[in-house]
Amino acid sequence: MISKNTWVQIHKIVLKPEERPATLPEETRKVPLELWVKGYLLTEANLGDEVSVRTITGRLECGTLVQINPCYLHTYGAFVPEILKIDLIVKDALYRSENHD
Amino acid sequence: MIDSSSYQAILDRKNTIMRQSVGIDYDQYKTGLIAFDYEKMMEDTGYTLAEVAKIQKNSGVGNTPLKELKNITALARKVSAPGKGARIFIKDEALNDSGSFKARRASISCYHAKKSGYAGVIAATSGNYGAAVASQAAKYGLKCIVVQECFDSRGIGQPEIIEKARACEAYGAEVVQLSVGPELFYTFLRLLEETGYFNASLYTPYSVLGIETLGAEIIDDTLKETGRIPDMVVITNAGGGNLTGTARGILQKTNQKIQIVGASVNLKGLHMAKDTDFNRKSFTTGHTGFGIPFIINPDRSDVPRSAARPLRYIDRYCSVNQGQVFFVTEMLTVLEGIERGPAGNTSLAAAFSLAQELNQDQIIVVQETEYTSAGKHHQAQLAFARENGIDIHFGDPRTEMPGQSIVLPQKVQDLFTQELPLDPIRQSYIKNACGSHLRIGSIDLKYLCDETHLKYADVQTILDHLDVIVEDKE
């Protein structure tokens, strides 16, 4: 059980596919419009429960509890060797005639 | 009974919500069937350039350094015709609090929101503007909500947008993240109505006024550094506010002709509202997917009358490919020792080619950079593109297919800009502005001339083609 006042992330459906405008591209219209927001859990709950949270601005939002103490895991990604080659191209073009390494 | 929070019910209340959240009655500026008094709308904000500069000085914004890119200039000269290769300068806007020129736009919106008694601000943005609003809101003790389009239907977020969410939350904002779709506007309106906060839209007069200082500083800084004014200023163009504000600031400092060039990343073929295209692009703003629709129809923005009207000021519009922007971002890092985010280098990528058209004694100013971080870095964004099946290779950048490939130039000579001719854009603008009106007034004709920077006769010719008649001609 996750205790009250834990910092969590919730998820909810804002618009079901059938509620979305007909003008949208097919790929977008066949999926729902989804929303994620973070806040303090108002009552104790389990992951996957429908819960209410108070966001950092003090708003109340409800949705499915999806993450506890949500964190940032974005990185610089897998190494892209082409970037090193760019270095060689531009340095060679600039310094070639100057016998620069 | 109709649900008062339904999609349609909220959109039906759009005008009321907008009026309350921006504090501007846009109807009062209407002067004709299609015309409105743009300058009056800008003046009525009550902030002069000097006041804007003072507000920004007090809030960690502006007076960023203008840096000469001597090695990049030398490299451009290596591949230019003899005597060609203008001096390239860059305005290092990444050094504003929150890391981009967007702090200028946020500063006046937040100052005004505080002065007008709003408890908080809301902005709909997946870009640097979110961090800018959050940072400025923190300074004024305002609450802040940022609404982002962030994830595709697989729940995969653009690394650049995830980083911006982190930055917004670091500055104390609430971040509402959505999956792909233009109905973000519905959530945005609901939040404005629920909270009564100020709409810190990118398209209000406050937002554009905030950028005018950037144009003014470019003139002052260039004069100070070189004793002359720039010949060309290159500006990344998306919603048009950056170009509009910079050009307006320049015009307040000098009446000498400076070529105003817009630059956007070429994302031709990718649909901005398509779930499956969302993560096939490496640029979330500064691209043609915003640049073209907004220049043709500025009022498609989130306020009734956008203060960003680039066609009034632009002299030339170019696109560059994604691979070129990544290439130039790395060039800036290793040749100049300045590591910045890729999106902010769109105009630099264009400037590298454009400098080769100008003489060596001429000056070209690139008017922005942006901060870089995990997710928001060419290494991260190329890695993400590769994970999403984009073919990254060296070759002729003209063969790049947005959404399928990113082509890095094999040699420096291969960097190029694609001209986006302004005449068809102006024609599309006029067609769109007239809408269903087959008869317009002389005030509308004058307005179309101001909007497109065209002469009466030229606008008249376009109107003739559209079978639109101008009545009550003077």
Structure report:
- The complex is a heterodimer of chains A (101) and B (474).
- With 101 residues, chain A is of the alpha+beta class.
- Chain A contains 2 helices and 4 strands, in the order E-H-E-E-E-H.
- The mean pLDDT of chain A is 95.
- Among the domains of chain B are: 261 residues, 3-Layer(aba) Sandwich (Rossmann fold), CATH 3.40.50.1100; 47 residues.
- In chain B, helix 12 links the parallel strand 8 and strand 9.
- The longest helix of chain B is centred in the middle third of the chain and has 22 residues.
- Chain B has a 7-stranded mixed beta sheet, with helices on both faces. Chain B has a 4-stranded parallel beta sheet with strand order 5-4-3-6, with helices on both faces.
- Chain B has 474 residues and is α/β, with parallel strands linked by helices.
- In chain B, helix 6 packs across helix 10.
- Chains A and B meet through strand 2 and helix 2 of A and helix 5, strand 4, helix 8, strand 5 and helix 9 of B.
